[in-house]
Amino acid sequence: MLQRRSFIKRAAIELGAGMFRMSFGQQGSSKRVLALIGDRYHNSDYIRVALTKMFSGQNVTVDYTTLYDKLSAKMLHDYQLFLCLRDGMIWPEGYLGPDAYTHYEAGLENPSDFPAPKSEFWIKEDQAAALKDFVNAGGGFYSLHNNSHVSVTSKTYREVQGGAYIGHPTLRPFKVRVTNSKHPITQGIGDFMVNDEQHYVEYDKDPKYKLLEAENIDGLDFQKLGTKSIAGWAYDYGKGRVVFTSPGHTIHALWAPEYVKLQRRSVRWLLKEI
User: Fold this and answer.
1) Which end of the chain has fewer CB atoms < 10 Å from its terminal CB, N or C?
2) Distance from C-alpha of 144 to C-alpha of 244, rounded to nearest angstrom
3) How far apart are CA 252 and CA 54, in angstroms?
4) For the residues of 132-145, what is the DSSP string, one character each?
5) Domain range holding 183?
6) pLDDT by residue (tens digit) across 130-168?
7) Is residue 116 part of a domain?
């Protein structure tokens, strides 16, 4: 009961702003995080639950939102950190299945009554420019998992985020290795295994900023790109900082103990606490 009451005190729904707020520190002294989460393939509920381990005890207040269309300079103004775990697609005409790998639409008696699912890209240039200005001015940007997909359609977003999504195989085990153990984020972090989507991304920045590498140690390839992929990087951008880490399709991947430690250190580094 005490744990439940404590949770209720820490959480509040702001319906007018379309946000769910969780406080992980002392009111009035905590730093503020805006987390844009959730898409067709990634339910916002599991993401919000999963990220509690990242933020717990960090003295931050986190505002979670799914309102991608509200991302703007005004929205970012009062935050020190922007986190995004969502891809670049929206589906204005809707879709039948909850994800791309089910066949709920098969066998319908009236298939012609339903439009074919067609995706569109949501990011606008003024939104990408707002993110760039936010980081340039000293804000932190934590880009997680499939968020590299937004960079496919926005050069400005990609220039800040550092790379762009290529694709991924189905869920399968792979190992994540630390390739730069001297960076403040990775100090004391060991290699770890996850059963997750191994995302392959193009990386645009200096190789010295790479932190993590993923490898399918069973020797399984993906689209002739090999068994290895870049899984994380971090760098200063203007007066701010950027981190990208690719695991995150499942809650058990996000909760891999070494990965939790790395996420927590990423937050601290982005907030310039380490």
Assistant:
1) N
2) 6
3) 13
4) HHHHHTT-EEEEEG
5) 2-88+123-270
6) 999 999 999 999 999 999 999 999 999 999 999 999 999
7) no
CATH number at residue 83: 3.40.50.880
Scored b (16 or more CB within 10 A) or e, 141-178 reads bbbbbbbbbbbbbbebbbebbbbbbbebbeeeebbbeb
The torsion region of residue 167 among left (phi > 0), alpha (psi -120 to 50) and beta comes to left
Count of domains for the chain: 1
Write the pLDDT tens digit of every residue in 76-109. 999 999 999 999 999 998 877 665 555 666 667 7
User: Residue 115 pLDDT more than 80?
Assistant: no
pTM of the model: 0.91
Amino acid at 156: T
Return the amino acid letter for 17. Answer: A
Q: Do the domain assignments include residue 104?
A: no
Distance from C-alpha of 29 to C-alpha of 20, rounded to nearest angstrom:
19
Point out the least confidently predicted range of 97-101, 178-182, 212-216, 261-265.
97-101
